[in-house]
Design goal:
The protein is of the alpha/beta class. It has a single domain, classed as Hexapeptide repeat proteins (UDP N-Acetylglucosamine Acyltransferase, domain 1, 3 Solenoid). It has 3 helices and 13 strands, in the order αβββββββββββββαα. Strand 12 and strand 13 form a beta hairpin.
Length: 160
């Protein structure tokens, strides 16, 4: 069985190293996956969509038969893309950035920021976010699987 990352490579997505794809990639990369470039250490969560063309042009093809809007998408190094986000044609996401869950990214994202919303806008810098999460961390991020589950249950006093 092919891995999610292996499948993305197989369909033509240009990929760096240390890519994580959480969720089914079969519809994630659209009809022109070769126009999508992912840098190193990119995390893509469930139900993210990369759309490299504007289907709205179909409404005007009777007036301009060759009308087409298609453009590459570039995701730089160290990027996290949250659940159900949509990345539209021509967007470049800068390095060390976070796309909040449910965002629709219509424009380029600068480096070292968090964007969110519809359309996505800058919320804060990743440095501000880092300071915030250090204060709120429950310090279990190094654990995985059943070990993490066990410690989370202890932390939250889960009894069952």
């Amino acid at each position: 069985m092919i891995s999610h990352v292996g499948y993305a490579r197989w369909i033509g997505v240009n990929m760096g190293e240390k890519i994580q794809i959480y969720g089914n990639p079969s519809k994630m990369f659209g009809s022109e996956p070769w126009l999508i470039t992912l840098g190193n250490n990119v995390h893509i969560t469930t139900d993210v969509l990369f759309i490299t063309h504007d289907g709205g042009t179909l409404l005007f093809r009777d007036k301009v038969p060759n009308l087409e809007i298609t453009a590459p998408i570039v995701v730089s190094d160290n990027v996290y893309i949250g659940v159900r986000s949509v990345i539209l044609p021509g967007v470049t996401i800068g390095e060390n950035s976070i796309i909040a869950a449910g965002s629709i990214v219509t424009k380029d994202v600068p480096s070292k920021v968090i964007v969110g919303g519809v359309p996505a806008k800058v919320i804060k810098t990743t440095e501000e976010y880092f300071e915030q999460i250090q204060k709120n961390s429950i310090h279990l991020g190094h654990l995985k699987g059943k070990f993490k589950d066990r410690e989370l249950k202890k932390y939250f006093n889960y009894k069952k």
